[in-house]
Design goal:
Number of helices: 5
Order of helices and strands: HEEHHEEEHEEEEEH
Pfam families: Uma2 (PF05685)
InterPro entries: Nuclease_put_TT1808, Restrct_endonuc-II-like, Uma2
Protein name: Putative restriction endonuclease domain-containing protein
Strand order of the largest sheet: 3-4-5-6-7-8
Strand content: 25-35%
Number of domains: 1
Length: about 190
């Protein structure tokens, strides 16, 4: 029986394709970004702008498509990830090897398993405090908080709400803006 060879971060960095990530030791191509995915990602980052603009320990680094090295065989590229500036005082020039304080994945059709099963287990192992999932097609946001080593749902919200969602509950987020209008059926 042949042993399964797991790809490493070094092998990921050698890939000529920029649209890949390392999940469970496998270099996988990221799905094509569809308009409602891109809009939800951009609108979420824009809504969180007040935190991103703050200097000092009360501020956040909120990044899109952030590649994070968690383990030698795990380097996903998160749709959105945030670090408190008190933990990550400056951004590195290369990959980030400090787990974020918050991750948000925009669930893509055909990639639900990765976003709802594989990534949360990885984040739990590395004690990422908050994990959000956004379903643009369903116009829904589900927020999770780490509690005793496991994620617990703390909010399930739709586009008709303005809500305060941890860890950004200092301000009310316009979920109608984040979740945009409903996509039409199609490719």
């Amino acid at each position: 029986m042949e042993a399964l060879k797991l790809a490493t971060v070094d092998e990921l960095l050698l890939s000529p394709d920029e649209h890949v990530e390392l999940i469970n030791g496998e270099i996988v191509r990221r799905p094509m970004t569809r308009p409602f995915h891109a809009r939800a990602q951009g609108n979420t980052r824009e809504e969180l702008g007040p935190f991103n603009r703050r200097a000092g320990p009360d501020g956040w680094w909120i990044l899109t498509e952030a590649s994070v090295v968690y383990e030698p065989h795990e380097c996903p590229a998160h749709d959105l990830a945030g670090w408190r500036k008190s933990r990550l005082t400056t951004l590195p020039s290369g990959l980030i090897d400090l787990p974020p304080d918050w991750v948000c994945e925009i669930v893509s059709p055909g990639h639900e398993r990765k976003d709802t099963q594989q990534i949360p287990l990885l984040l739990q192992r590395h004690q990422v405090s908050y994990y959000w999932l956004i379903w643009p097609e369903e116009r829904k946001l589900v927020a999770h908080r780490l509690d005793a080593g496991c994620y617990r749902v703390i909010a399930t919200l739709d586009h008709r709400r303005v809500a305060r969602v941890p860890p950004f509950d200092e301000i009310a987020l316009d979920l109608g803006y984040i979740l945009a209008e409903a996509p039409e059926s199609g490719r």
